[in-house]
Amino acid sequence: MNTVFILMAQYGAQAIVPIDVVCRDYFPHLKTDKLLAKINAGEIALPLVRMEKSQKTAKGVHLADLAMYIDQRREAALKECEQLTGVRLG
């Protein structure tokens, strides 16, 4: 399964997904400003794309970076599951 293709279908083949949409879909427990703070603090390893150098510019996440982040989180979950159950999934 290719996460990039799934995200392309989800977001209509947009290269950059607005940060508020990423927050809504994948971090619903956070407000957008809190997600941005966590990204800027290095707590969430998700590169932000700024359309201009201005601090007030639109921010988003490249589709490939979001896919990689999701895949890394999945790998961590699979590893944890294997440690708990002794069963290798994926």
Key words describing this protein structure:
mainly alpha, three-stranded antiparallel beta sheet, 3 strands, globular
Class from helix and strand fractions: mainly alpha
Count of DSSP H/I helices: 4
Name the overall outline. globular
* Rg calculated over all Cα atoms: 15 Å
Give helix % range: 40-55%
In the sheet with the most strands, the strands line up as 1-3-2
- Major sheet attributes: 3 strands, antiparallel
> Strand fraction band?
5-15%
Q: What is the oligomer described by this structure?
A: single chain
Please provide the count of β strands: 3
What is the N-to-C order of secondary-structure elements (H for helix, E for strand)?
A: HEHHEEH
Low-confidence parts lasting 5 or more residues at pLDDT below 50? none
Mean pLDDT: 94
Quote the distance from N terminus to C terminus. Answer: 11 Å
Give the helices and strands, then pairings.
Elements: H1 3-10, E1 16-18, H2 19-26, H3 32-40, E2 49-50, E3 59-62, H4 63-85
Antiparallel strand pairs: 1-3, 2-3
